[in-house]
Amino acid sequence: MARTGANESTTPVIERQPDDEVVHTDSEKTTSKKAAEIPTDEKHPAHVGPDDGQEKVGEIVASEKHPAHISGDDRLDPESLEGETGPLETAEDIVTHVIAVDDDPTLSPWTFRMFFVGVGLSVFGGVLQEIMYFKPQVVYVSVMFLTVLAQALGSALSEFIPRKGAIGRFLNPFPWNRKEHTAAVLMASAAAVSALSTEALSVQQLWYGGYPSTAAGIFITLSSQLIGYGVAGMMRSVLLYPTKMLYPVNLPITTVMETLHKPKAETAKRYKVFWILFAAIFCWEWFPEYIFPILSAVSIFCLADQNSGVFTNLFGGSQGNEGMGFLNICFDWNYIAGFGSPLWMPMQTLTNSFIGYLGGIILSMGLYYSNIWRAMDFPFMSQLLYDGSSNTTNYVPYNETLIMNSDFTINLDAVDSVGVPYMTATYVNYLITTNASLTATLIHMLLWNYAEVSLGWTWITLSKIKSLLRPSSYYFWRSTGTRTEQEKEAILNDPTIDPHYRLMVDYPEVPNSWYFVVFALSCIVGLACLYVMDSTLPWWGFIVGVLLLILFMVFIGAQYAMTGFTVNMQPIFQMLAGYMFPGKPLANMYFTTYTYNGLTQGFQLLRDLKLAQQNKLSPKATFTTQMIGCVVGALLNFVMMISIVKNQAPLLKSAEGSNVWSGAQVQQFNTLAIAWSIAPKMFSIGARYQWVTAAYLLGFLAPLPFYIMNRFFPQQRIWSYLNAAIILWYLGELFVGLNASITSYYILGAFGQFYLRRYRPQWFIKWNYLVSAALDGGTQVMIFIATFAVFGGSGKAVAFPEWAGNHPNNLDYCKYNSL
Where is this region: Disordered (predicted)? Predict the structure, then answer.
């Protein structure tokens, strides 16, 4: 068997046979396809950074120490590798040791059962996510939750539907398999989102005279959801196929899928541990979430001094917008892993984000207590606009209606009369560092990963566009996607290609023309519907938005794929729209819908395509399920939005809402659109918040010192390890929300990604992602049940009695700073 660090003479030779099976020369037989060996080629490394040996997610080192192939069965017995497995340094190590590099091509996803489970969960996810968007407490339907639920439903159907007769064999042809499971999860994942277009449409209905056309609203929702899919699909060769495009968020999901579908004799212990942890965290989460919530934010400093406002700002973090949460200890996995488990976040990302996190605390406290931008006349943390009459004891919200024309554009003269609104210093800090992070990302990727990102626009060539526009391309559905033998060999011999993708060379690929048609139709439909909807967004603004979508898909998408980190682009797109369409908040919202929403949809497509690749689901099955899920989800999003806005309009427009319905998210989108519509008066050079715009220039410069130092001192790996884009983003991360979990997040992340991965790699292989998946799954099931049982999701909240461990509105006992 193939062993890490084994002598070449002890490694079995793997020969590719015409029937695509694998023959081991030591007579070991297998019924699964295995990955071909990656040729060791020192002249052709995939990593373009300066140091081959550095801790760099995405680096590929093909050598005897880190072979590209490891048998799936061998990988499932990590104890056999104990003492032999070296530190897991690269993406190659992760994808070949943690995930079995094998495939059973006899498994079929094309069953009625898969479509039944997939469409059912798509309806469930699409409806639930849109409903939760209009709730006081927004709960997100996670892929891990859908994975566990799909497995339960599929297994039940397989167990209870008889297989006798033609109908029985059609409904239940064979046991529920991993590829059916993957297809159903991808379909549901594509549906379980809340389309940003429904946010813009809600605002237009509630505050801007209504949407002129229901049909146009439906097609805007469909096209804005699909346009990002089209762009991302055409970039698969850049953002999906290479090994370094790891998408670490998928590793726990793939790990649990593998554990659930391998024969229990092979994974009995892992299977047992998964369900024990799943049940344990499900029971435990009732304590920090409901019974004993002080466990979610234990602050020794606030307990020691409950009368210090400074302590509240620095150490508080149990309530929304309370404080920085510095040195708090959190025992609530829901908050620790709220934006991604620290157990799968790569160590390089964790390190850079930790540097930014510490710097952000210093920067935010410094801005506030230096009274920059009159910071102390407004709350320490808030995302609202404030009137200049505010002071340290009375915060006055800005009245946007005083500056609005009858046609729902901004009266710039009225702005001069009423006054330009103020923002909190922490929010301005967030805007500055976010903008700097954007341009730093572009420069960082060009300096360190130019070879990869430059491929992102290779498909936009005159010859390829002409070929796509030929009449024969109109019959895109006739393309089989079958590769020639030369194309297969090129993939098998390319050391940059993911070993899991190599196993799929015999599956017909989805032609780029399919994704191009999705993209082109989305553009045409979007332009037409925006005109019908009186969106005020000009045609040239839409085209500029599409070009930005393509540009950022390459740079931001590559960074997300390699590091698990991505910049929140919504405020950036809203700022750009503010300068391009001054005084037009509706244009701002629709521009953001087609850019920011298109970008996030593209990331989701690529993330789920990687999940399909790791589970060996054929490309055409993946395309089919994702398109069905996206369309079903978008339609249901729109239907639910129409119903909710029609029946709950007074509550959605009120500041308080109710314990059942709230328009807080819609109101915030509208407020930001108005703010960015007067961007020249707020953010231009010479204006009060000029550094928000000047930050773009700072971001261009930020990566240069690290790159220059690495060129002069290449032996010092620290310079190539630092990522200015991630550091800058986290300088402003703590501007909103509950921040008490961050210390625990970094402690657990360092334990998994540094200690286990480097010093106990066999434990890391066997347990790290499985434990993360169990904790995520059990927590999310608990949150889902609790939302409807006691948190008010069903209409009535049931509060737990107050006691020392449940101190409502002030869980950590910090001095309560009421807004």
Answer: 1-85
